[in-house]
Amino acid sequence: MPVSSTNLVTNERNRYSVPCAFANQKVSLRLYPEGIEIHAEDSLVATHARSFERGQVIYDWQHYLPRLERKPGALRNGAPFEGLPAPLQQLRTLLVKRPGGDRLMADILAHVPRHGLENVRVAVELILEPGAPSAEHVKNVLARLRQAPPPAPLDTALVVTGADCRRRPLRPSARGERSCVRSSPN
Question: What is the largest CA-CA distance in the chain?
């Protein structure tokens, strides 16, 4: 089956989206009672719930993310993006009203393939609470969500001593200064 330039493949008068990379290419369909699988180059590229109504267009908004990088204005009236999760939809509504808001929202959605939808959704929910959303804020929250926890404290044979440095033997440091660190007797 051929894929249209708008990333849609037709089956039984319904159209289903495929990733941008497969526009204007041939794909094969595997039909099941509950779903449809779209295969290209011997690999699964998309799955959708099967529709038995006629004239339906079934989108997966994530298939259109690469196109947003080139055309962020597609967010304003783009039918594929009507299916965004509620927090992303709310952020989209707020940002599109601003000058350059399409580009900001496209930048935020570009993080979905790298960080995962759940992490981006959580980051957006966190920035919507204070009420001043921005792309930089989302990037900051995503970076903090991705950070590794601090390392566990390590046991060492060195003991740091405080005010009683004068009473203990001192060891010279690498710069020739005197240090209050000494090996503990084990």
Answer: 90
Q: CA-CA distance, 52 to 109, in Å (whole number)?
A: 31
When pLDDT is cut at 50, 70 and 90, the band that residue 104 belongs to is confident
Question: What are the pLDDT digits (tens) for 137-154?
Answer: 777 777 777 665 666 676
Domain count of the fold of the chain = 2
**pLDDT attached to residue 164:** 53
The number of helices, as runs of H, and strands, as runs of E, in the chain is 7, 10
Whether residue 82 sits in one domain with residue 12:
no
Task: Please tell me whether residues 80 and 137 are part of one structural domain.
Answer: yes
Distance in angstroms (rounded) separating the CA atoms of residues 133 and 142: 14
d(CA 60, CA 7): 10
